[in-house]
Structure prediction request, 368 residues.
Amino acid sequence: MRDYRKEKKAMKKVCFRILVFLAGLVFCVPALAVNEDVEGELVIYTSMYANVVEMMDEALKAEFPNLTPGNGGSFFFRSGSGQLITKIYGEMGDGRNQALGCDMLMVAEPAFSLELKEYDYLHSFALEDAENLLRFPYDPDGTWYPVRVCNMVLAYDPEMKDTWANEGITVPKTFRDFAYDPSLKGYISMGDPATSGTSYAAVVALTDKYGEEYLDKLRENNVKRDSGPQAIASLQGKDCAVLMTLEETVLNYIGDEAAKGNTNPNVEIIYPEDGVVLIPSNVMIVAEEFSKNANIDAAEAVAQWFLSPEGQAMIVKGNMHSTLKNVGEPAGSVSTDELIGKDIGVDWEKAYRDREAILELWARKVTQ
Prediction:
């Protein structure tokens, strides 16, 4: 019996390789020169922060003046990555064969890209010279490319350091001490991996590094679950001594406070001495038969823009790290290449294949 699914995949690979070859032949027309010809509607599911989404919306409207935002005046529907994954599962249906409510995806959790590719939900497109442009891995079949890099770090209020020391509490310098130091019991907080893809990635990386005991130690230290602005707010009093949080969360907060005239925002990043957890999040185009607007040409144009120096400059302005080589880091951060050298690393295949088991382990050891 013929396996039409495998034949379809093989045909996609052949077509993709042809596209890569043809892309290499095109030099004379700059990609952005045709943006005024990009038309139709487009919807992007994303987990980027609201302020970044607002900035990206304005940039896309300027770059693609004849492209219609398909979500109530915005190109984006945003939510936490965990919530988005749940939403997408619902849209796919039990048979994993129904259309999604979007045309593109920029979800923070790279393991989900592997899953969507396996279900044939992604469209392949060619990024010319990808191997020389990108400093993070990408799908050789062209179904996903890293578009922004989130960085999991620790954060604390430096003005509270002496106060905590007087109470016998030591601000940790490592992810290990965050969980293992008993002086921190009741004074640590992190995102919930059941709803936050980046927190899930951190749990995968840190349990690989320190074993399942890491989760036991988090429980013993009475870890709280907070994220975003709520987590930063908990540092301003005596509710929390240290957060495990995204670098961009802290940088966004510092930038917001500076805009208000506050040059002393009372929060500082700790780049853990035992490594950082980098999450190179991907841009994906939904396969035409599963996309909301079946507007592949527009989706490809927008994806190429996100992966261009102009698009990556917006990523950096949004306090995320660029996936392109030779692009600077966000203001207030450290060198992206330095962070790459300290990256603990995430087993994305494991994060995909063992998602249910890892989240069950988290629930059993930490939250139940």
